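Changelog excerpt

This revision adds worked examples to the README so contributors can see how folded entries look when concatenated. The first example is reproduced verbatim below.
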Amino acid sequence: MAARLHQLRSKAAQASEFVAKNGCAYYKELLEKNKQYIVQPPSVEKCQELSKQLFYTRLASIPGRYESFWKEIDGLRHIWRNKKDLKVEEASIAALFGLELYAWSCVGEIVGRGFTFTGYYV
């Protein structure tokens, strides 16, 4: 256990050294590549304006997402009506997808409780 801790510390030190040497250059390169997305001059007012634009753009996209949702529901209804024609592969994929959703829900509950299985800190 002590050997692993020493190994972990040395790798963390190497990573820290790498970031210290190359972090500034990476930052400058990243800003240079994406300078078309940087608003000049940076100001609080411009940030507020951009956040409002994002909010109302998302709000305006709701009708399209609503239509897409109901198309998906109609597709599921069609599959359910014609379940006799359903292949084993399609049914197994749907079952695996449902199982994955259930597993993510369980993981979310565990994380929400602070990584405890009973809900209480022991």
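The second example, added in the same revision:
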Amino acid sequence: MSMGWNWFVAALAALNIFGVAWLLWWTAKRRPGDPKPEETSHYWDEDITEYNKPMPRWWINGFYLAIAFGIGYTVWYGGLGTIPGTSGWSSADEHALQKAAADARLEETFAPYRNAPLPLLAADETAVQLGRSIFANTCATCHGSSAQGAIGYPDLTDDIWHWGGEPEQVLQTVLDGRDGIMPEWGTVLTGMGGEHAIDYVIAYVRALGQPGQTLENDYMAARGKTLYDGVCVACHGVEGKGNQAMGAPDLTDDYWMYGSSKESLRQTIAQGRHGVMPAHRELLGETRARLVAAYVWSLSTPPAPAAAGAAASGSGSAR
């Protein structure tokens, strides 16, 4: 806060306190020539009379005490801009103390799950409940409360993982985030195959998801394969199975994160996509990230009997 704003806030606070005191004193004062309380000459319905009686003295004195308390409170705790109070208290210090106490409680709660393997956590009902709570507070904004995602945000309840579905891969996604980039290919494809080049590629990509389909009788898909082999194969592979190391999706399944309509596919190919999964290492810390990763992994992976048995007998050895 600049010095000008500091003095403005200080003056405004002081003006409010002393202004209220002056207003109370001024309005409670009776002056020579004032009519008596019962002589206002205001009558309604013949027998209803308006009086002008002062507030009770106990109420006025109570108000003065409240003003004095406000002055003392301001002097003790501070309230005149950035001028500190005589007690040295500050909201920043209070917040730091409360945060430290809350962090200590959280550390105690999450300590048993530190460094535990995801499959073991996924088989622990308490750990899964904690992970679900963290997910609801942190991840549901994008992936939805049911974790089924939306257009542009992946469904976490199926078995499709663009960056890999192994426990450590899921944990890495949560901790360090992902940056999935589909480049713009509109100009390149048009230069290679003419104005309908993108439609050809769309036809071939759709054919990839239809096992047994031949391209001999599909002119557009056949043209699209040539273009695909020249541009798309580097990321999505010869068979269109994708590449989890790059986050390139499998084009042979029936899942389309940005939609499967022709318009959506045309936009994806021509203009590209840029999907970002933020890193949560600093926000959550490794233990909480591990818990939420275990919850997400459990949504599509039933716990193995061995892991469930280990969790039932106590997971202290893995923690």
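Reviewer comment on example two: The longest strand covers residues 178-182. The chain has two domains: 3-90, 116-311.
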